[in-house]
Structure prediction request, 255 residues.
Amino acid sequence: MNNETQSPFSLHGKIALVTGATRGLGAGMAIGLAESGADIIGVGTGDMTNVKREVLRLGRNFHEIKEDLLKAGAANRVKEASLRLAGRVDILVNNAGIIRRSNSEQYNDEDWDDVIQVNLTVVFQLCREIGNHMLERGSGKIINIASLLSFQGGIKVPAYTASKHAVAGLTKTLSYEWSGRGVCVNAIAPGYMETDITSALREDPARNASILMRIPAGRWGTPDDLKGPVVFLASDASNYVNGHILSVDGGWMGY
Prediction:
């Protein structure tokens, strides 16, 4: 037995499904999981060439599923495709998310519905569909991606804030039901990260400065900062961690 399989942090032989794996946090977490030995199923609508190349370079398998999570039935199609391509799913990372910005008094129903669909409804549906598969096998790790806005309010993002509060609650509810049946459900709450979603904030000098002043670490986070947390929650090292929302925020919540 080699050192990789002996380590409680090893994911050797595991299959991880990551939504929103095209770029940003999803790509970073997919690569981090592959670095620890997992084969990857990436779900997204964009070009996954770079992620696939890196996963294959690490000697892991990469399966690609093109799916628009705004479309009805997406979760079931993702489950069916995953089982067809890889045979099983050991780790589910519900990372895909969108954001629409507007003053709350002007926020339209279409934006509200789209954000809730991708950030919450599909998260629940994937938890349910993949969770049933895991419960049948008596093991699995589900990692939802929450946010600092799971704990506090935001500016001009009412739907995003509502969805991320709900993701935290859903994570805790599922953990109560499934922990005793072999499926661990936890969440990661990233802080302010250098992604496409935050580009408008980083390009606004005043907002960028005010945010950096509030982060004790003194910098925006990067996708690499989520590699360790997602590997921990996906591995046997976290088998007694259930219903936890892990903040990865440079100290923001402790400020």
About this structure: The first strand starts at residue 15 and ends at 19.
